[in-house]
Amino acid sequence: MIRTLLAACLAVATVLADTPPAWAQDEAAVQDTDIDALLARMTLDEKIGQLVQRMGGRSKSLNSRLGPEELDKVRRGEVGSYLHVAGAEPLRELQRVAVEESRLGIPLLFSMDVVHGYRTIFPVPLAMAASWDPDAAERHARIAAREASAAGLHWTFAPMVDIARDPRWGRIVEGAGEDPYLGSRMAAAQVRGFQGDDLAEADTIIAGTKHFGAYGAAEGGRDYAGADVGERTLRETYLAPFRAAAEAGTASYMTAFNAVDGVPTTGNAALLRTTLREEWGWNGLLLSDWRAVEELMAHGVAGSREDAARLALEASVDMDMVADVYALDLKRAIETDPGLIPLLDQAVRRVLETKRKLGLFEDPYQYHDIAREAEVILSDLHRRAAREIAQESIVLLKNEGNVLPLAKDAKRIALVGALADDALSQLGSWRAQGRAEDVVTLRAALEAAHSDVVFASGTDTRADDVQGLPEAVAAAEGADLVVLALGEDFDWSGEARSRSSLELPGRQRELFEALAATGKPLVVVLMGGRPLAIPEVAERADAVLQTWLLGIEAGPAIVATLFGESNPGGKLPASFPRATGQVPVNYDHLPSGRPADPDPSKDTARYMDQPITPLYAFGHGLSYTSFDYGEIVVDKNEIPAAGGSLTLTIPVTNSGPVRGDEVVQLYMRDPVASVSRPVMQLRGFRRVGLRAGETNILTFTLESEQFALWAAEGGWKVEPGEIELMVGAASDDIRQRVTVRISGETAGTIAPAAIETLSTVSAGVEP
Ligand code: BGC
Fold first, then answer.
1. Domain 2-47+116-360: top CATH class
2. In the structure, what pLDDT confidence band is assigned to residue 472 with cuts at 50, 70 and 90?
3. Is 662 left (phi over 0), alpha (psi -120 to 50) or beta?
4. pLDDT digits 0-9 by tens, 298-314
5. Nearest residue by C-alpha to atom 7 in ligand 1
6. Is 290 in the pocket of ligand 1 (CB under 6 A)?
7. Is any ligand 1 atom within 6 A of the Cβ of residue 618?
8. Could you read off the pLDDT of 200-221 as tens digits, one per residue?
9. Measured in angstroms, how far is the CA atom of residue 347 from the centroid of ligand 1?
10. How far apart are CA 481 and CA 452, in angstroms?
């Protein structure tokens, strides 16, 4: 066991301050003494050094900046953390320099964007949210943590929990879509998966939940643009998944780049220090996004780097990602205003606490085990999990005449579309250490599964090029069925990848029309990282499978679904618009005084050129089987606002011919309240697998606090009156309703969407 610096400091402090011996104190008290003692020994420069995160490389050339000058900085105690680094062996050496060659020997924190897998790449987060299976999201994060920690990492910048209601925003791919309840479940599940039960274990890493604030509300879907959301929307919608992550114990957050109501988040003391820390009681490590401290100047709230440093510190940002504003300018700010010293100490303490939670003071090398690295990374077990989660993430949008599943003895299949053969794209926008060579493409998987496949790429997804169309049409004409991969490649969604149009890019629409004109049965496999506006595909294709970007097992997962070995059970985590101009088209909008009416003589909330409804609603997703919903039963018709709870049960039957998964969705509406309430809000769901003919009884337990609203005067409030509860297969496919009453009034404590609705499944009587 390494003799730790903290133990040494504790010994010194015990002598000097005559504190009781360690065995006489409880563990927390001992630990506080440790950190106090260490802080007391640190110079101002060493303290600031702990708040500095530097890049050890670039995301695509990890460790490339770790030259002699960088190591000297570590020796001088000028660095607290590195990002864009990896590898058990190189990071052991870097850690050794920090621990053995710096004056205080404080270990470094190593971090990276492990967003949907480290080497075993899973579906992009939007796809994983389409599984509506938080256990799958947790399982993915556990595996990602196991691999990343084996490669020497302590910290991932994930989960990304920004609510996104405008698919023009490219970063919609990184999160769980438009809904705060679904987003909260996915957030909490991933935090649990990354962090496990004990951060000090060698295979757990800290979650860096991001990007705190309302990054997803960027105006016009333009990345980095400001958000103009009211307090209620901020609290009920955008902050809810962050709150769920706090409840799940996230050890860190990253601040957003953008401004909310004119105040850039990284310098927003009201949002960070007051709401996040004081109100929520969260005391973890708060990291800025990439150069976001420096960007406070470009936002126009800081006149100098020194100002920017002060603002961020006052807002309680503990660590400055790569801008070196803390490194170079915080000292001057503190010398000018010594009142900042307690804030500095708080920040340093939080960094040190995080290192301690990870067990780094006990054993700084426990994350650097080369044998474990070789054993766990891309193991068969991990690959299998990637396939299962990929299958769960697929959404069947349309299936006319049950063209799917394909018969096992199907004859010639024409497989068309460049994306079917594009391995890199399946890795998505944050591929960490994922490699194209690990990916099994749709083409490879289909050719392996079926003896008669003719492939034609047709057209590139983005180029203005239709040269390949005749070949694609010929392939279709010579085949019995066409499988057409359409959509966006990996580089069309993600950071700084906003679009002004949600239509199929390039000349893909012409490719689609040409193939549809052949009259052959046409199955579209829609790939990409955002909802697209595809009315023509929805109209003319026989079947549409939304397959997103599914990771290394994309091809086998899609092929298993095409042939019915896997029955699609995913549901949309974000609405699909009919046209770009329709966004945002989220399902939980406010009611209008004049709801849409098809009668053109009435002035109502409508478009002249489009139906008001989305093309595919939030929660939509079909199956190769069908499900019947029985009667709702509630155990109480009335509950008190304070501490009330009710259970709702509903039988669900697989009424079709094959096994399948249904996502049973529970929505609520508060029809009369002190402020106008959304037409519906998700408040529970459960993915359940049923054999043909099988019935299960689902039970949901709701607490009265889950019906709270953010009141006009501020604060959470549960109000008296009726609540309508709705259960169904999609937000536009409600099968059963019931009304209950709340009596009395009380204050709530947290965003209702952040609270989990517990559910159970039990066997029902066969119908
Ligand atoms: C992104 C973050 C990411 C960071 C480090 C930033 O540009 O906004 O999501 O974690 O880079 O790669």
1. alpha beta
2. very high
3. beta
4. 999 999 999 999 999 99
5. 290
6. yes
7. no
8. 999 999 999 999 999 999 999 9
9. 21
10. 11
